[in-house]
Amino acid sequence: xxxxxxxxxxxxxxxxxxxxxxxxxxxxxxxxxxxxxxxxxxxxxxxxxxxxxxxxxxxxxxxxxxxxxxxxxxxxxxxxxxxxxxxxxxxxxxxxxxxxxxxxxxxxxxxxxxxxxxxxxxxxxxxxxxxxxxxxxxxxxxxxxxxxxxxxxxxxxxxxxxxxxxxxxxxxxxxxxxxxxxxxxxxxxxxxxxxxxxxxxxxxxxxxxxxxxxxxxxxxxxxxxxxxxxxxxxxxxxxxxxxxxxxxxxxxxxxxxxxxxxxxxxxxxxxxxxxxxxxxxxxxxxxxxxxxxxxxxxxxxxxxxxxxxxxxxxxxxxxxxxxxxxxxxxxxxxxxxxxxxxxxxxxxxxxxxxxxxxxxxxxxxxxxxxxxxxxxxxxxxxxxxxxxxxxxxxxxxxxxxxxxxxxxxxxxxxxxxxxxxxxxxxxxxxxxxxxxxxxxxxxxxxxxxxxxxxxxxxxxxxxxxxxxxxxxxxxxxxxxxxxxxxxxxxxxxxxxxxxxxxxxxxxxxxxxxxxxxxxxxxxxxxxxxxxxxxxxxxxxxxxxx
Length: 545
Prior knowledge:
Blueprint (H helix, E strand, L loop, with lengths): L1 H8 L11 H9 L17 E4 L12 E7 L44 E6 L23 E2 L9 E5 L4 E10 L5 E8 L9 H4 L10 E4 L4 E2 L3 E2 L22 H11 E2 L21 H5 L2 E2 L2 H13 L1 H4 L14 H4 L8 E4 H4 L7 E5 L18 H16 L18 E8 L5 E6 L3 E2 L5 E6 L7 E6 L29 E4 H6 L9 H12 L6 E2 L18 E4 L1
Parallel strand pairs: 14-15
Antiparallel strand pairs: 1-2, 1-3, 2-13, 3-14, 4-12, 5-6, 5-8, 6-7, 8-9, 10-11, 15-16, 17-18, 18-19, 20-22, 21-22
Helix pairs in contact: 4-6
């Protein structure tokens, strides 16, 4: 009955104030399901967002972490912070270990906006059979309901080799001994997708068990719960015996945790009353293969947070009931997705500026002007960082380009039960040093747009409205593309015999073998050097530059 009530309370449509065509599309994509349903509807498949560590990410990863947004998820602070440290504020102690102290009312990221990117249409290329993603039997992905260190601290179990492929080495399954080997990258070195659905040659990225790089050992805890262990296999996929009520999974973890050998000093959640630091959820995080189980487990973690989280990092007091304290929560999930997609600006629908949950403090429609002076100055710096790194290009002439100038704000609003939803919107805003401004052009009109411009008293003249939809299709290769055709089936058979080729193999050819970015699958009738025609979602050919 609880889910029924909450779904009904959050199902209201986004406000019409501050809307553009793109913001409406994104709000429809994250719309809450009908009463009593979870991740069901017509087109409300969610969106992916990613914080900007793409400026300096390592090239040895095939997957990078992103976050899945949907208004069936009720936690606040659903974006990894881009300012400061989510461990702050704290007094130098997480309840079990010393940590760097950071104290003060304004310390930490919780009063600051976060700048990121949002992707809707690009989700079609992230997993196989995306059109069926809301079906009950879809299970093509890897999804974590909390922060999980999926791309950097996970070991993939390889049954045929009787051991774990870990970051920087190998763990023998029988002995548990770690052998250093730089050829091993851990699960971050695998392509995205559920390896038990697509195979390890095409998936496994970000899956696996949590790895402690200091001890060179797997530190994923177990539990003796009412329905068995927290994990259901050696690769630390969640135990689906709990999927009728993921709250029972959280209860099993909260009261019956059993640490791995060598980590017995983590004396939390073992039935003796000790609660865990926030990062304890990272080590315990198992993965599910579909968004519905992700949503239900993430909500269970949030609803039962007082039982497992000791509120030491960040230091908070949720009992006050104030949004300022409640938003000090690691509310993001973690989804390992292809780095070739999420770092490709052509796949972004917009750059987004997520405001702190209930930043205006009145429980109503937040606006960027409610950010304090330090937060507004920081936002100016963050936008300048995006511009310097060519992830934002100011001006109305760049509304339809990617990278370009299209920007949206995101607010988080709670219902009376303390459950949060997200809303994309636009609002005029000028940065404190007048470096930049966010312009809401033609508000209320069918051609309303939202973009970043350089500072000044007036924005640059707005050009004629671009064709709908606003976000462009992925750009073609340069006109001097010197391509050669590769038959996908022939190419893959030379490496993986007796397996039918599909679109993911095109990505494999271009991304892995040629290192040129996203693949272009084509249905060529003719082809000449210097001319490239591209058609998405076909599997016959791939162009390798």
